Amino acid sequence: MKIYTVFVEPKTPGNIGFLARSMKNFGLKKLVLINPCELENSAYYQASHARDVVQDAKIYDTLSEFIKDNEITTVVGTTGTAGGSYNIPRIPITPNELGKSMCIDGNIALLFGREGEGLSNDELELCDILVTIPTSEEYPIMNISHAAAIVFYEIYKNQKEYPVENMEIASFEEKNIITELCNEIISKLDYPDHKRKNVEIITKRIIGRAFIAGRESKMLRGTLKRINVRIKTKEE
User: Is 12 contained in some domain?
Assistant: First the structure.
């Protein structure tokens, strides 16, 4: 399993350093910066003994470019507020729930958004899973390095406490095939257009949120194809 820590459009070099420091505390080394500010001395100073993480960071102009170039199988977004298009709320999970579900083999991206602004709606729509840290309503916004440390800790802790044999996870393309098969079936269920669109959105999110093993993916695709054929036969 490869875990990439992705900082989207960081505005402060010091925060890049603090994030790198938190990463190294929990054995993470793959830092990715999307359209970042200039890397100044403060980034390396605040990183302390994690200067190598900053030095080796990959830089991309866009999030989509990074996802495509690194064959990312699962995109995990961190957010304080879970929302979505068509007024269908996203269901976030806690860092602990994330950690327990990540004993898999795949390329995983952990997204952290801009200081003070977080991830945009478009960026959240790219995410398969949303993670939210429960905080006090009196002061709910956390510093990025503090939030990241909680997420990193839960992943690290659960990997140590629940060692299981790694399994191959379904690729991004395989999940897309499952989604397309579901959409084809949904299109035949006589839903009104607006309701069909909502069902497709929910189905996509459920599939994206699931850590589906490669073997499970093949069986599910086969089942969906059989369902599709049966519906088509009845229509004829």
Answer: yes
